[in-house]
Amino acid sequence: MKHSSSGKDEEKKARKSAPVRLKDIARDMGLSTVTISKVLRGHSDIGEETRKRVLKRMKEMHYQPNFAARALITGKTWTIGLVVPDLLHPFFAQVAKSISAEIRGQGYCLMITSSEEDPELEQQEIDQLLARRVDALLIASAQWTVESFRRIEERKIPYVLIDRKFAGLGANFVGVDDELVGILATNHLIERGCRRIAHIRGPETSTALGRAEGYRRALAEHSLPAIPGHILSIGSSGDDRGEPGGFEATRKLLAFKARPDGIFCFNDPVALGAMRAILGAGLRIPQDIAVVGCGNVLYSDFLRVPLTSVDQDSSAIGKRAAALALSLVGAKGTVRPKTELVVPRLIVRESTLRNQK
Amino acid sequence: MKHSSSGKDEEKKARKSAPVRLKDIARDMGLSTVTISKVLRGHSDIGEETRKRVLKRMKEMHYQPNFAARALITGKTWTIGLVVPDLLHPFFAQVAKSISAEIRGQGYCLMITSSEEDPELEQQEIDQLLARRVDALLIASAQWTVESFRRIEERKIPYVLIDRKFAGLGANFVGVDDELVGILATNHLIERGCRRIAHIRGPETSTALGRAEGYRRALAEHSLPAIPGHILSIGSSGDDRGEPGGFEATRKLLAFKARPDGIFCFNDPVALGAMRAILGAGLRIPQDIAVVGCGNVLYSDFLRVPLTSVDQDSSAIGKRAAALALSLVGAKGTVRPKTELVVPRLIVRESTLRNQK
DNA sequence: CATGATTGCGTAAACGATAACTCAGCCCAA
DNA sequence: TTGGGCTGAGTTATCGTTTACGCAATCATG
Fold first, then answer.
1. CB contact set of A19 (below 8 Å; sequence gap of 6+)
2. Residue B132 and residue A109: Cβ atoms within 8 Å?
3. Which of A206, A317, B104, B145 has the most crowded CB, counting CB atoms within 10 A?
4. Which of A96, A132, A306 has the CB atom closest to B109's CB atom?
5. Residue B36 — pLDDT band, cuts 50, 70, 90?
6. How far is A96 from chain B (nearest CA, A)?
7. The CATH number of the domain where B103 resides is what?
8. Which of A71, A114, A156 sits opposite B68 (nearest CB)?
9. Residue B10 pLDDT > 60, yes or no?
10. B305, B240, B277: which is closest to B85 by C-alpha?
11. Residues of chain B neighbouring A87 (CB-CB closer than 8 A)
12. What global pTM score does this model have?
């Protein structure tokens, strides 16, 4: 039996076709708001028959809970924040995609913001997400300092670093084993007979440092000399100038007296720039110079010279980062920070297809 | 002069270092909550001297408004929802990126969800975003029907369709002029001397229809015959199988008695598949068959054969869609739906570099 | 000098939901 | 008959802000 609504609510409904509230259902069924709320949340307090009736009526009236009201009292927003340096970069796009897929089923939504590789902008975006009280934060950071992370910690909001980590910061981290990336790539070049292997490294991030370290270790283990000037950097302005950076760095390498016969590039865009420079100078890939990239971006098998690349399994990184974040949200007290390393995999293509050792 | 807090709030602060509230500032300064709130929103009600003092103290105490509380009473979430078929697709990634950049400055955040080209999932995601009361919705839809849009309209939430539009739906739309895309591409092939031009079209979306129509019109205007069987489709399963779809379609075209000498492909992934098939069959691009794609994706100038492509200016699409959405949020009553078409631009590369007419 | 407007701030009641109690009725054992 | 424990509801306060008023004090006006 229906009960009539009060005049005020009636008017409001007519004016703006407002969404139904618990109160509306309660009045409609002659029950109290709390009873409806309890049914909604599966409280054991409610009689079986009442529960069924309410559930049915809720469906009929197309009830959808008001997240704002809920968040206000429970403190939970059912929202995860993600900050990436560049959404256009296939690596981060894939990470975002798999995070989204992972949390979707658990009822969470994803707020994505891009820092455009700008530390200051990243700070702002983090603040914005904190102000919105996201339940957890996933960050592929372009920072130099750890200041903004301290701020997150103050707020006691769980966060997970993706791809790039920070020394001296006891934070959760999910990313690829960068040293292994460097080793894999460099070992492969060595196996293919390269003896003067250069490395074009990225800016001052953990990622770049790790890969460079792996490169050095691989050379050392094969007793190959680390030729001075064979490690170049694309500069500090971030990932975005990867291609031009790779191009310029390679031009310098080509002018070098001991011209390299293999180049391990920080990532695929850099490798593209490198290949452009090599081919532009009239040299052949891989006969004169072999090239390895990292990231295994889309279409890298259909490039002018199909590119050998180290796959970071970005999809797994996203998935595991999301799962880790969700577990932190559910956790009671403070949990010991966890580091999860994904194992990289070498994808061999034409850019290193030369005479074996 | 500071006033002491009540025991209860004190305890809470200590336990979880809760964010400061208006109440905290008010008590701290011996003012009322409302006064602080008014200062925050720039009400003209407050004396100049008080305003300055409050503003200063707010900064000092690192006040950040609680969005949930605000949303609860004002109905505004300062959140925009975006639904795309696939974040990994560079087109949508770029659109997302520029939307994000456009709304950032206005204080909005972006909730991004991916439908994975699945209409049912898209419905769910739209519902989810509606339940969260986003201020506006941007959708690049994978739907067949207009049902879910009706639902959005019921809720009176402004929405803008991106890239794909629907006949018979009076909705806001921002996308490329698809017919012009088809004309541009086909005319170009004709100018380059192609006479048997095939088209590999996309699934049943407005985008695919428009491009196919442009293709037909261009042929007709040059009095070229529309050879039966020269229009193939990659199938209905969406954009994601672009590359294999293009490959298979092209294999069929190659087996055709009147083998085409030019192919206009629905998009770049399809074009990649097509090129793979052509080269795999031992034919040359563009000498035997010229290829045009659409989308002008990253690195398409460094492919095995650099690909001529129609640029959709996805960045402009995102920017204008965002601006349109924001204007709708601000608008008072119902506004007449607006359609904004971005003008496509042909980027000529090697895949069509053959003897001119 | 009384009246009315203006300035500057405070009070109380929402917004929609949940948390923490309370409480009536019933059953059962002592 | 009394008391204790369930069961299945309802009451009330609260989350942090905003909205709509209320109301002194000051100022101008005739």
1. A63, A64, A66, B155
2. yes
3. A317
4. A132
5. very high
6. 8
7. 3.40.50.2300
8. A71
9. no
10. B240
11. 87, 93, 96-97, 100
12. 0.91
